[in-house]
Sequence to fold (224 residues):
Amino acid sequence: MTDLEVNEFDSAVRMTGFAAANNDILRNNTKVISTFVLLDADIATLESAGAVRVSAKGLRTDGTTDRRAAKAALYALVRKIANTATTIKKEEPDFANQFKLGRATLSYQELLDAARAFKNDFAAATDKFAEFGLSNTMSDNLEAKINSLEAAGTQQNTGKGNSVAATAQTKASIARLKKNRRTLTTIVRNILEELGDEAKLAEWKSACRVERAAQKKKDSSPIT
Fold:
């Protein structure tokens, strides 16, 4: 939420607190009661969406870190296989080298595609690679690192998706909250003015007040 939206939210919380403390004054107005129910629901939704955004940020950040590490580990292994295959080909020209990588940086999907292809082809050349120091567990190693990278990518995407959904939910809820705040501000003020309760009216006005968003100060230091 923006700073102004946070201030709107804070005011809504104060307003519901006023309503709870003054139920005896407001309970006979059906419109007030039903609108406060809606306002309470908006507050709960915004609190929940805020928690989701925090969780999503952590999930996305953690997934990004894990994905970076998993990609580096898988790339190192794939490159090792490709380099070994090149050496085998130089030693044995009849070797069918299907394990080639370009010099360009591989994308996430390109790396996964290459790793899966290497895994499929490795089984037929296990003995030959073993002669050059790569054990027959290499296929399992590739599988594990592929799974690790895919899992990190899924976690990262889940975090992004959750964040987008929570942001959309927040926008819709804050719009409703503003509308319900405006409605309640007027109705409750009218009720209190009719009662002539100046103390309660002052308390209500204070609860409804929305602080202005802080303005960033311009740098007025002289240019040197």
Notes: The CA atoms of residues 46 and 184 lie 19 Å apart. The mean pLDDT is 81. DSSP finds seven helices and no strands in the chain. The chain has one domain: 3-208.
